[in-house]
């Protein structure tokens, strides 16, 4: 699905490298972002039974009944994950719990989500880690870092990348020009401008010889030789010859490839399940991907079957059995059979109690929604939903349209 980048303070050089990786290895994403919109910008999503709302430019959280549980007081907020959410106020970051209390004071210059029980934070230009009690367990001392995977985290010092364990001990020395977190027991590293792979002990198992390399997924990784992409296994066997402009990560045995200026699908053996014929093709999620052909959008499964024909003006990726689509300027949610399961604006009840005041706010700063505020208690806010509201599938409360 389209790239959704979380708020962070990356160094410009590292940020550029990460963007280069994302776009070079998954070239179609730079195009799909502009046409396949994120569900999150058009619906109200719940994570840990809490959803972000924005009133007057400030963020807070409501519960599934639509009542404001955490007041809209933050300049920025990310979704809850495992009971914690990143918030920002006056350029300082921290985490809040679901009861609204802060995990620590708003003292950090940046925060990243927790991974394996630790969160990357920065203060005064240096990076370290805190635990879920808000305690600093690895003092900010690095020029940058990434979250823990397989008990190791990428950290950067004096322009070189290395890896530490959860105790802060350096386990792989600072010697790489660039590196990525471990995935399937291997990590991408760069030396002398070329990319290869190391194992958990820091041994170079595949030499740094590729122009670009991606992390392993399902035992396979995309690599670039010159301007063309191929696929290798964990023994460096070339499974798919480098004949494509780009190849995405494998998902359930298939990957999206780009050949010339068109997109298609290949399997683990490099067989073209669908030849390159689409103008755009999103990555697979739950064996479904959105495609564009002749300026219309439809959906294809991993077997190459167009099970929902190209008939929409825009489309999002499927999420838990639903996708948002636009047809003739109308917004709908459809199921995997193409059946409309919800298509409605928020309807404002005709009778509003005299002790309430109706105002307008925004979901994630994008879509308009109406609220009531209790005049006697302005912290009591409830989202007004349709009277016959019965749609609450997965993480989506409802759709929103202008």
- The percent range for strand residues is over 45%
Low-pLDDT stretches: 1-43, 344-354, 362-368, 384-402
Shape: flat
Sketch the major β-sheet: 4 strands, antiparallel
What does this structure look like?
Helix content is 4%, strand content 49%. It is mostly beta strands. The radius of gyration is 23 Å and the shape is flat. Mean pLDDT is 79; it is low at 1-43, 344-354, 362-368 and 384-402. A 4-stranded antiparallel beta sheet has the order 8-9-10-11, with no helix packed on it. Strands 12-13-14-15 form a 4-stranded antiparallel beta sheet, with no helix packed on it. Strand 12 (144-145) and strand 13 (152-157) form a beta hairpin. Among the domains are: 177-278, no CATH class; 287-353, Thrombin, subunit H, CATH 2.40.10. Pfam families: WG_beta_rep. It comes from Emticicia agri. InterPro entries: WG_beta_rep.
């Amino acid at each position: 699905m389209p790239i959704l980048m979380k708020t962070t303070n990356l160094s410009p050089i590292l940020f550029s490298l990460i963007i280069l990786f994302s776009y070079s290895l998954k070239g179609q994403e730079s195009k799909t972002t502009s046409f396949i919109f994120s569900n999150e910008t058009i619906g109200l999503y719940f994570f840990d039974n809490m959803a972000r709302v924005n009133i007057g430019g400030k963020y807070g959280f409501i519960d599934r009944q639509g009542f404001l549980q955490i007041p809209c007081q933050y300049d920025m907020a990310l979704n809850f994950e495992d009971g914690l959410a990143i918030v920002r106020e006056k350029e300082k970051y921290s985490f809040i719990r679901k009861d609204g209390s802060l995990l620590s004071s708003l003292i950090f210059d940046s925060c990243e989500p927790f991974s394996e029980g630790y969160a990357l934070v920065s203060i005064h230009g240096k990076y370290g880690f805190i635990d879920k009690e808000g305690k600093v367990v690895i003092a900010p001392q690095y020029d940058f870092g990434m979250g823990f995977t397989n008990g190791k985290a990428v950290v950067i010092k004096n322009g070189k990348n290395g890896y530490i364990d959860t105790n802060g001990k350096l386990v792989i020395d600072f010697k790489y020009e660039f590196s990525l977190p471990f995935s399937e027991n291997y990590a991408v590293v760069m030396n002398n401008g070329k990319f290869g792979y190391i194992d958990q002990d820091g041994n170079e198992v595949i030499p740094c010889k590729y122009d670009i390399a991606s992390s392993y997924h399902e035992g396979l990784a995309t690599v670039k030789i010159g301007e063309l992409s191929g696929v290798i296994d964990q023994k460096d066997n070339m499974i798919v010859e480098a004949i494509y402009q780009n190849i995405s990560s494998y998902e359930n045995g298939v990957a999206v490839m780009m050949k010339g200026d068109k997109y298609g699908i290949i399997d683990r053996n490099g067989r073209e399940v669908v030849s390159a014929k689409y103008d755009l093709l999103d990555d697979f999620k739950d064996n479904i991907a959105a495609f564009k052909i002749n300026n219309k959008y439809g959906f294809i499964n991993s077997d190459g079957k167009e099970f929902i024909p190209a008939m929409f003006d825009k489309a999002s990726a499927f999420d838990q059995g639903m996708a948002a689509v636009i047809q003739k300027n109308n917004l709908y949610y459809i199921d995997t059979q193409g059946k409309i399961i919800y298509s409605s604006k928020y309807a404002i009840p005709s009778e509003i109690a005299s002790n309430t005041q109706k105002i307008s706010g925004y979901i994630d700063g994008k879509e308009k929604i109406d609220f009531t505020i209790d005049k006697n208690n302005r912290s009591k806010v409830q989202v007004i939903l349709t009277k016959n509201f019965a749609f609450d599938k997965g993480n989506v409360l409802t759709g929103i349209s202008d």
